[in-house]
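Can anyone check this?
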Amino acid sequence: MRTQDHHLEELYGLPAFTFPEHCGVTTTLPEPHAVAWRIGGERWTTEELWVDTFDSFCAEVDIARVRALIVGVWGDPEDTDPSEVVEALLAVRDRMPALRSLYLGDITDKECKLSRITQTDVTPLLAGFPALEELGLRAGDETPGIEMGEDHEERRIVLKLRFRALRHASLRRLVVASSGLSAEVIQGVGASELPALEHLELWLGGPDDGADHEVADLEPILSGARLPRLRHLALRNSEIQDEVAAAVASAPIVPQLEVLDLSLGTLGDDGATALLAGRSLTHLKKLNLHHNYLSEPLRQRIRQALEPAGVEVDVDEDDAEWYAEDDGTVVRHICVGPLSY
């Protein structure tokens, strides 16, 4: 199973630089525009609140020139969502006109497994930063929480990633890494007007980690109607990868793509056969099927069909894991799912 053992080393083509966690530390800071600023300490060592560190950052750095920002641990990601982070960023949006790239949840598996990272509604970030070109995040399934009502009574709430339909004219890259993506998020992305989007990467996951989507939820994305500039489509880490592949095979969006990525999931011969029988893929620069359950004859068929046309093909099975139940049913595992807890 794949793990995230290290924090991001770069964002927006800029090297990552972690802002000092404590105000007053003697450090020579780089030019504001020259790095991707990372804010957020390790989960088990952080004493200062993320918003306090961010306040120090805003006081010591000319944030008007900051182009890329990486949000790390904001507290305990298992039961605390980053809503305060979102509020803090929106509070200074007028002071950050140069911000072009934001990553929310640069959290290693040691700090918190992907499946347990609590997220929030990220739509206000896109609405608040209309010039943003890149948004990336890591999110787990829904998490129960408690809030205090005006009557001082505790109420159970659900903390989870939300992405509501919107129009954003500048966003070029959207990455949502998840082990259990909800239908609500997929539908929100599909219903959004994103005319500049070139790279879309969704980790779909499986029901054991909260995924409740169906292949039909992908149809607005696969139609390409609202994504005229999309060139890189990644629908990864899916427990229904064969069904996804079959839907992609006849999708109107395929001819405009340069990269098609159906990696990290449970892809088998049925899905691969559907791809070969569908729309031509010889125009692609790359087809990524890494981590799969293909038979060797199918691997060879894919290579023979595409590599002579100059397509880079990745059909490496990697560490794909499976087991057979007592009745003979074969169970395949996605790359990042229940076994990677």
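Reply from J.R.: I decoded it. Helices lie at 50-60, 83-91, 123-128, 183-191, 219-223, 241-249, 269-277, 296-306.
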